[in-house]
Amino acid sequence: CAGLVYPGSLVGWSATWNSHGTFSTQNTLLPMVTRPSGLGCVFIQRRAICDTKSMSDALVALTRPGWSSGASLNIVHLGEKRMANVE
User: Fold this and answer.
1) Looking at residue 5, what DSSP letter applies?
2) Nearest-CA neighbor of 60 among 74, 76, 44, 77?
């Protein structure tokens, strides 16, 4: 798994890709109310791209409930010729 990394952040917060042909980009969404004990967005996004092989697996990982805030993610899988947006 690889990607662009903002200073002080982790792979998964910016453009990220894996060796199976999955690429992602994200835009942060700032809800009026957040979950202080929720799951960190960067960890969910990283796991969804770095630990999966298919678009379906990535989408399941991204739709896990309990995020602390929100994001709009664009996912492309080159091998499957599929793309999706998840918010």
Assistant:
1) -
2) 44
The CA distance from 76 to 26, in Å, is 12
Dist. CA 10–CA 18, nearest whole Å: 15
Ranges assigned E (strand) in the chain = 2-3, 16-17, 22-29, 70-77, 82-86
Residues 32-74: tens digit of each pLDDT: 888 888 888 888 888 889 899 999 999 999 898 888 888 889 9
pLDDT at 75: 94
> Contact, 35 vs 27, CB < 8 A?
no
